[in-house]
Amino acid sequence: MAENVAASGSNDDDGIREQDQLLPIANVGRIMKQVLPPNAKISKEAKETMQECVSEFISFVTSEASDKCRKERRKTVNGDDVCSALAALGFDDYAAPLRRYLNRYRELGGDNKAANQDKANNNSNSNEDKLEEQSSLKFRMIGSSKNSSMRPFD
């Protein structure tokens, strides 16, 4: 049994395997490929390095957002907390565009509170229209990063 634990990845003190704390490497590779020329290759080492970096970044930002919630005696981290955490950590170039994206996401009904408000206001857009707009917004964000200086969500 100890052999299986060792073979499946290292354990932390919490009993969580390292591989369970990281984003799936296939997803990381897919995101990396989106900003590279079609014929570019990515080494396994590069994917693994990026996988560790983005996972650490997410933990770093989430920890800051969680601290804010704890100080405000709340249990749920929301998008506003993540934006505030990015700004507090000095990632202002990302916080402002992410806040704009979050507001747009809420306008389109991706957030339950915003969706309920839309229903109360008798919004005429159908759910299909909203889903199409959300999908379009996400693809515009990804596509724009290819042509920009790596500033997301602009």
TrEMBL record:
Bias (Low complexity) ranges: 111-126
Key words of the record: Activator, DNA-binding, Transcription, Transcription regulation
Domain Transcription factor CBF/NF-Y/archaeal histone: 23-86
Domain of life, source organism: Eukaryota
InterPro entries linked to this entry: CBFA_NFYB_domain, Histone-fold, Transc_fact_NFYB/HAP3, Transcrpt_fac_NFYB/HAP3_CS
Biased composition annotated in UniProt, kind: Polar residues: 144-154
Record region (Disordered): 1-20, 111-154
Similarity section: Belongs to the NFYB/HAP3 subunit family.
Entry protein name: Transcription factor CBF/NF-Y/archaeal histone domain-containing protein
Protein's organism: Hibiscus sabdariffa
